[in-house]
Amino acid sequence: MNKPLRICLASAAALAAACIPLAAWFCATRVPWPLLRAWLMAWTPLLLDAIILLLALAVIVNAGALWRAARAIDRRARTLALVIAAAAVLVSAFVAPRTNRLYFDEHIYQSIGQNIALARVAGMCNDGEFIADDFFIHAAEYNKQPNGYPHLLSVVYRLLGVREAWAQVMNNALAGLAVLLAFVLARWLARSDRAGLLAALVTALIPQVHLWCSTAAAEPSAMVAAAAGIAALAWYLEAPGARRLFLAVAALAYAVYFRPESLLVLVAAAVMVAAVRPGELLEPRLCAGAVALAVLIVPEIIHLAAVRNEAWGNPLGAKFTLSILRDNLAVNGLFYVTSRAFPALVTLGALAGALGVWRAELRWRKLPFIVWALLLWGVFLSFYAGSYGYGVDVRISLVSLIPLAVLAGMGYDAAATALKARNAAVIISALLIANGIQFLPLVRRVSQEAWQARADIAAARDFAAMLPDDAVVLTHNPNMFLLWGKSAAQMSIFTEYRAQFENGIRQRYPGGVYLHWNFWCTVPDRLQHSFAVNVTNAFPCTPVADRVFRGVRYALYRLDDLPRERRDIPPPPPPGARGTVIRMNQGQ
Questions:
Q1: What are phi and psi of 270, to 5 degrees?
Q2: What is the pTM of this model?
Q3: Measured between alpha carbons, how far is 242 from 260 in angstroms, rounded to an integer?
């Protein structure tokens, strides 16, 4: 094929790849959002299943080449990389406390994964019922976050069964996978096993990796999925071919479904192709791959259109504003240099890798990693909740950590070469490990953020064990009860959908209707508090059990239809109360 024809073909493919997502956005924004969300709830599981099946098929057809590539790595380097990865898994599993840090979102993700696995519905269940081993969703709501992480959980649930612990076990494993991907990418970038090992070590020593890989948050999977997509593309660029391109397209397509900003990884991917092998841009196979990728990400474009008017927790509704740019820049910039929550030595190595010019032939190869790190860091600077110092939002730093670790591995490899000492890499590794040990107290810490939500979850877990199998609990957070195998419904159903409550919930459960006095009943939120008060004013409430932590009371009540005068739930104990209190009603 002559060059003018190839240029025309590449231009047409680039235009198609750009127009397909734009056309999807244009059409989706003209569909009523309830219809759009209903469509996504029904079809997202099938679409993501199709993508992951394509990914599995791509791995199978490349299995031989992948095995040979792994065997080509020096045995000592390969062994050390596996040892570092295993150490990262052990630290995240046994040193970092296994807890909930992200309020109730972690249980929302897990419950959506449960809904996908058991009912093929990609949404939050607001009214769910268990009858023996059968699960029924009577009301569902589409979540604002993409469904890549819940879908990945659903795969685990389908294989191993629904269990709360699997999400944290999976994230523990992702810590090790992040280390191996950093090794692979740095080795490819610097063409050095030593750079790969140093990048792996850096990744294993970043405290935020262990803190969040011991939770059920979505960020570890977003971090690893993006790195896997970039690694697959790098492998393709080493020896372009249809099979390798198939793997790269499938991996990048799946990676965009984990967080809203995951789409930016495609920019880094485009830069990688242009910087490493620009001639490939005119190849028909890459043009076809770009169009196929554009088609595969259409559901994510439709998702972004469906949630474009979400306030994301901001009562003012302004999600992005330049007025907060300066404050976020100060906090998120200092995060990398103060050594309070992130090792400054990693930042130093990354700067050396990004700015160093020791090997001229590697200048362009590192450009996509710089773009990747800057984009996934910079996208949060104008986001109202994008400060690493805002509650638990430091978790969003994970999505830009692997490119930093890769650049740091390259920087320290170059430093070891410049020192011309036999054991320079060993000395650098020892310094990194010594610096990393200083962060172990941070890794072991259960911080004060979300303590009230954690207490609520601990109390709810005890309450769930007290519920009869044929009962239902009204709560603001039905996701966790559903995950534990108990029927649950949103407390707001009584206020907003009275007919659904009277003719549905009250009639379906011979074991009774219970009320969970939870976190949202104790915070100064008039609307959420009113949902509980409306129920307690309509029915007598028999106390079943309660828990008190730091003066905040969480309780379980059974609703009774006996006539009585209006009576409110007893107020919580005085602020000085501490400890745990259990009161069991003898009649239950």
A1: -65, -40
A2: 0.91
A3: 29
